[in-house]
Amino acid sequence: MIKEELSRYPSIDKPWLKYYSEEAIQSCELQCTAYELICRKNRSYPHDIALNYFGHKITYGELFEKIDMAANAYYAAGVRKNDVVIFCMVNMPETIYSLYALNKLGAVVNLVDLRTNEQQMQAYVQECNAQYVLTVDIAYPVMERAIRGSHVKKVIVVSPEESLEGIKKVAYGIKTIGNKVDKQVLSWKKFVRLGKRSQAKTAEYEKEKCFVIAHTGGTTGIPKGVMLSDDNINAVAQGYQYLGIPFKRQHKYFNDLPPFIIYGLTLAIHTTLCYGLQVILYPVFDSKNFPNEFVKYRPNHFSALSDHLKYLAESKKTQKMNLSFLISAGVGGDSLNTVMEEKINGFLRQHHCSYEVCKGYGMTELAATAVISTPKANAIGSVGIPLVHNTIKIVDIDTGEELSYGEVGEIWISGPSIMLGYYKNQEATKEIITLDETGQRWIHTGDLGYINKDGLLFHQGRIRRIYLTAVEGQPAKIFPNLVEDAIKSAEPVADCTVVARFKQNSAYYEAVAYVILKDEAMTMNQAQCSDLLQKICRDKVPTYMCPVEYRYVSEFPHTPIGKVDFRKLEEMATLNKV
Fold first, then answer.
1. pLDDT in tens, 295-342
2. How far lies 238's CA from each of 20, 117, 439, 476, in Å?
3. What sections of 331-422 are H helices per DSSP?
4. pTM of the model
5. Across-strand partners of 514?
6. Are 296 and 324 in contact (CB under 8 A)?
7. 475 bridge partner residues
8. Cα–Cα distances in Å, from 257 out to 253, 260, 266, 409?
9. At what angle do helices 34-42 and 93-105 cross, to 10 degrees?
10. Which of 273, 299, 304 has the alpha carbon at shortest distance from 287?
C-alpha cells in the first residue's frame, strides 16, 4: 500500500500508485505470446473491424485467417522457431499478418528501417545470419545488393498496393517486382500459395524468449539491436489498460508510425489491437500531411511527434472542426516544450476536445512507453507517471546515489518491459542495465529528469548533451535545455536546439543555437534577432551558457525515426565555425 508519509526517495514511496486502482496494482504478468494475447482479446468479436487500409476494411475474423495463411506460408518456406527474419516494411495489412504469423511460429522479427543504406543493411543481415527477408518493394533494390553472398534463401517482396486489389489504386510512384523469375524472390501472392498444403505448428510461450529485434534511434552512435520478448511487448499493452484513458472497442486509431520504430509496433499496432480498436494503417510518415488524414478519418486516438500536433493546430482545415470525438492525442519522440504544450491544449479546448495532449516517455530498450500522462496525472511540462508495474528513480550522475523529490539526475527505470539485452553485445548491455542488491534490474536511460511529490516525471534532456565548460578556470556545465527554454520564450522563435562545439584551442565547450523563426518573423533582421535572444539568455541563464552564435534554419536535421539529430548539428557547428 502507499505510505501516508513520504520518505526522501520516490522509488520507495511510489507516490504515482495513488492514481491506480488496487486491481491494477495487484495485476499479474500475462505470460503468453503476443499472438496469443490478441487472440484472447478478439476471438469473440470476429465481425469487428481490425484494420482500415485506404477504405479497405479487414475484420478481426479475417485478420486471424490471414495470419494463419501467412504462418502456413512461412512454415512451408522453411521458417522455424528462433529463425531470424529481416523485416523491412511499412504500415500495410501484410505487415500485420507477417508480424503475428512469425510470432505464432516462434521466429524472431528483426525490424529494419527501409531507408537503411546498403552497407548497414548488409551488416544487419550478416549479424543475425538471416535466411529469410520480408521487404516492401521500394526497399528491394538496396536489399537485393545487401544480401549478395549471404545465407538468405527466400525474399518475399510486397507492394503497398497488394491489399488494394479491386478498389482504386493509390499512386505510390514506386516500382514493383512484377513477375520476377528468380526462385529466391517471391511476390506476396506466390508466397501465400506456398502454404496452401502446409499446416504451421504454433510455438508455445517461453519466458525471456526473443520476439523482436528493434534498433536504437542512433542519435548518439551506431544503432544497436535491442532484443525484446513477448513479455516486454505485452507488459506495455497491459499497462495501458489501467491509465484511465477510455479506450473502447471499435474506437478509431490513426497509425502512421513506421513499424520499424518500436513505438509503431508496440503501441500503434499491438496495444491498439489488444483493445479491439480499428487501426487505420497509413504507410507514409508525414507530419505536414497529417491534418489532411485526420480530417478524413476523424480518429479517436493517435500517437505522433510534436510536429504532427503543430501542423494539426495550424491547419486551415481544422480551424472549424468540432474535436469532441478526439480522446487521446499522444506525443512521443522529442519532448514537447511547455509553450507548444499550452498552445496545443488551448487548441483542443477551443475545439471542444475534453482531453489534454497525452505525453509519454520511453525508449527502445523499454519496448516503447514506460511513463505516460493520464487524464488525472498530466501536469504541464511533465511526461506523466510510470506504467503501473514500472518503478522510476533519479540518480546522481556522479555518485550513483538516489536523489530526492525535485532533484535533477539521471532517470533510472525498472519494470517488466526492460529488454533482454543488446543483440550479441553483452558489454553494452552491462553498461546500461544494473542489478541492485535485491536483484532488481534497472535501466540507465541516459536522460535527465526529476520527480515531484505527486510522482510525476519531468524530463530535462539528455546527459550526453551536457557540455563541460569553464568559468574563471573552474569547470562548469552547459545545460542545453535551459538555454533552449530561454530562447523559446522569445516572441519571434518557433523552435530552437542548442548544441556545443570546442572552443578554439581548448578542451572546453561553447554553445551554438540553431533557431527556427515563426513565419511572421522571417523578415526580421537576423543581427537584431540575435541581439534580442542574447539579452534574453543573459537574463535567464548564466553567462557561460549563453550561445556564442545564433544560426537561423528552416528545419533541423532528423534521424531516421524523426528525432532531432544532435550529432549532425554538432558537426555543423564545428565544420562551419565562424
1. 999 999 999 888 889 899 999 999 999 999 999 999 874 567 788 899
2. 13, 36, 24, 44
3. 338-350
4. 0.84
5. 497, 551
6. no
7. 470
8. 11, 9, 11, 31
9. 110
10. 304
